[in-house]
Write a structure and sequence with these properties.
Chain A is an alpha/beta fold. Helix content of chain A is 35%, strand content 25%. The relative contact order of chain A is 0.21. Chain B has eleven helices and eleven strands. In chain B, strands 3-6-7-2-8-1-9-10-11 form a nine-stranded mixed sheet, with helices on both faces. Chain B has a two-stranded antiparallel sheet with strand order 4-5. The two termini of chain B are 17 Å apart. The chains are: A alpha/beta, B alpha/beta.
């Protein structure tokens, strides 16, 4: 069973809920937690587990052999990322930070002056805190290719997933390419939101995305008592979804959160029993 | 970014989501607008919330314009000779081979519009076509200053480029209106949309809260800010939810020579202001002084 925890808006409680749920389910099931927020990975911090670097993620970048270069300017012309700058009659200048490794310059070069090289963009980690096994990606700050770090980590997850009953994927905030990459392949997604206009607005975006991806979506209402739950109920109805659990804004939840610990709450238990029910192992 | 030198660009970033970027941006804009001409920009194109934080729903904007920053590859089936070169060359796994029809299938969601397949195709069977991937809204808040919001179209890609167009739109409006400050609310994370938001900024306000996760993400976003050599200051939000950890953050800032330009206590009023879609300084005037102090620090550091 593969379940993603997502939500659009940042700070709604995705990581807190993903780690708490993984901890709770791990009492009687084999759980793998995948931290797919490679920009800002936090699950290992909440679970107090030390990460082990199991590999570097690299990405293709072009390399020029200036002795073969005729300074024709084709590489610069075809690059849609503005990563190759060329002034007439001069050698092309490559701006590695802008390059997305598409290889168009290599194909376009008429004199075979461009070959494949690579750059490091991130790392893959595993960890275990005694209860929960985790795999996560970590992009090197300053790099822009998050989605490739997510894909590399996801490949690792997919290789190991048969050893587990449940794989929980914790996505980044937003609805962009790395979130999409993390969501694809899940049997269900749980969108974590809060009962405010901001929460409802971003929830709609995520529900739309999940519809496009064809992934069934359920909702968990975090800080359920701070605003107007009706806002979220409306979104749930509009997208044919339902709220499967609510977690109130309690002192103990804030305490756990501020210390970076998983939370214990009946909302988490409700989520866990919902998931067990789907699996026929309740 | 080549702005007129009269307009200062200030960007609010945090790494971690939900630590108070839009809260700070909305109230900072209000107090800055008391002495300067301000334009606000929501560069969280995945999940834009600054407008809502300032009481503006999508329907309250004056204009929404659809924009195109991306192209997507499309096949002219009659020309394809089945050589599969496009599949081999695509580094984004956006092209799969349909064995039954003996033709490539393009996945729009993964296509980056790089044009490698178009270049490699011996039969000119692939063309790049413009894709409408975002919309940009412009409007006026009830507090007098303007807002520009970018919004990514669902399932489309290219957040970074959309951020650039959103900033450019705000820059043009700001220049016309004689804005002195462009205040950008960035997305969560440290990836391309965040990098696009902070490049060209004169000053970055980094927001954090005293939790291990937020601190780890702060360190990551600061590495990006430093990579671009932009001066920055730190605001610790909800500093009293974990005093011991706040000390740790302060110790880190002192050691690294990072000015702490504000500390905001936890208060239920913030939650109520958020629920009511009002900046906290408009909801609870007692909080104004605190934000005026942050604003004067921002002005002092970015001038």
């Amino acid at each position: 069973m593969r379940i993603a925890i997502t939500g659009g808006k940042g700070g709604t409680g995705k990581s807190t809920i993903a780690t708490s749920l993984a901890s709770y389910i791990s009492k009687d099931r084999r759980v793998l937690l995948f931290d797919a927020d490679v920009d800002c990975p936090n699950d290992h911090i909440i679970l107090s587990s030390k990460r082990k670097n199991i590999g570097t993620v690299t990405h293709m970048v072009p390399k020029w052999d200036m002795s073969k270069c005729t300074r024709c300017g084709r590489c610069s012309e075809v690059c849609k990322m503005n990563a190759v700058v060329q002034v007439r009659e001069r050698n092309p200048i490559f701006i590695a930070d802008q390059c997305n490794g598409c290889g168009a310059c290599m194909i376009a070069c008429p004199s075979g002056a461009i070959s494949k090289s690579k750059k490091d963009i991130g790392h893959i980690y595993t960890s275990n805190n005694g209860n929960v096994d985790m795999i996560g990606g970590d992009m090197i700050p300053g790099q822009m290719l998050s989605e490739f770090v997510v894909s590399a980590a996801k490949k690792e997850v997919e290789e190991k997933s048969s050893d587990y009953d449940v794989v929980i994927t914790d996505t980044a905030a937003g609805t962009h390419c790395d979130v999409i990459s993390a969501l694809i392949g899940n049997e269900m997604a749980i969108a974590v939101t809060e009962p405010t206009q901001l929460g409802a607005h971003d929830l709609k975006l995520v529900m739309k995305l999940l519809k496009v991806l064809g992934i069934p979506a359920k909702i968990v209402l975090n800080r359920s008592d701070i605003g107007d739950p009706g806002l979220i109920e409306d979104v749930a109805k509009r997208y044919g979804s339902e709220i499967i659990a609510s977690i109130p804004y309690s002192k103990s939840v804030i305490d756990s959160y501020s210390k970076g610990k998983p939370v214990r709450d009946s909302g988490i238990e409700n989520m866990a029993s919902y998931i067990s029910g789907l699996d026929g192992n309740g | 970014m080549a702005t007129g030198d009269f307009m200062k660009i200030i960007t609010i970033a945090s790494g971690k989501g939900g630590v108070g970027k839009s809260m700070l941006a909305s109230s900072l804009a209000m107090v800055l607008a008391e002495s300067r001409k301000v334009i606000t920009v929501d560069c969280d194109v995945d999940a834009p919330n600054l407008g809502l934080s300032l009481g503006l729903k999508d329907s309250d904007y004056d204009t929404w314009k659809e924009i195109t920053t991306n192209e997507k590859a499309e096949l002219i089936e009659s020309r394809c000779n089945g050589c599969k070169k496009c599949v081999d060359v695509c580094n984004f796994n956006a092209i799969e081979w349909d064995d039954e029809r003996d033709m490539p299938v393009f996945d729009r969601m993964f296509c980056e519009g790089c044009g490698a397949c178009e270049l490699v195709c011996p039969r000119d069977a692939i063309v790049l076509k413009k894709a409408m991937n975002a919309k940009i809204g412009t409007g006026k808040t009830r507090y007098g200053f303007g807002i520009v919001s970018g919004q990514l179209k669902m399932g489309e890609s290219g957040s970074g480029k959309i951020v650039f167009v959103t900033k450019k739109t705000a820059e043009d409006i700001g220049r016309k209106e004689g804005a002195e400050i462009m205040l950008i609310d960035a997305a969560a994370g440290i990836g391309c949309p965040v990098i696009a938001s902070i490049t060209g900024s004169d000053y970055v306000v980094a927001v954090t809260e005293p939790t291990p996760s937020a601190f780890s993400d702060l360190e990551r976003v600061l590495r990006v800010v430093e990579h671009f050599g932009i001066p920055y200051g730190l605001v610790i939000n909800k500093h009293d939810i974990n005093n011991a950890f706040t000390k740790r953050v302060e110790h880190f800032a002192k050691g690294a020579g990072i000015p702490i330009i504000g500390k905001i206590p936890y208060d239920k009023e913030f939650v109520k202001a958020n629920v009511g879609m009002k900046p906290i300084v408009s909801y609870d005037r007692g909080k104004k002084k605190m934000f005026q102090k942050i604003a004067s620090e921002v002005l002092a550091h970015s001038d």
